[in-house]
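Subgroup meeting minutes
Present: P.N., E.W., G.H.
Scribe: E.W.

1. P.N. recapped why we're keeping a running log of single-chain structure predictions: easier to compare across weeks, and new members can see raw inputs and outputs side by side.
2. G.H. added today's entry (140 aa).
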Amino acid sequence: MRSTHPRRPRITLDMAMWVFTRVSGAAIVVIALVGFFGAMLMGARTQMDLPTLLRWTFFPNPNHVVNSNIPDVAVGWSGLFWQTLQILIVVFGATHGINGLRAVLEDHFRGPRIQPAIRAVLFVFWLAVMAIAIAVVLAD
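Output recorded in log:
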């Protein structure tokens, strides 16, 4: 006797990364807005030019605003909250981008041996990017 219940689709890497790409894209926008409004609340309206504000929005590092007229930059903006935002935007952004690169490479290079090799190389590259980025964030 056959079951009348529909089969649940298997979760594959492609499906999981498709969902992650959508979620990470939205998360990057939210984190950027938090950085933008955080900088505005902390004095960027009158003390930063636009390029400095945009650098701060996407990578809130006190070293980006050292040359501005903002007093005590490191005191207000190098805390745990801003470091967490930096790490999140790096993780979401790098994973989002490397997943896009994986999708493009796998579309162009098909084969039972080449796709696992592509994934392995990109995974090692992703690990290196994460290690370097987190070291830079925490080196303040």
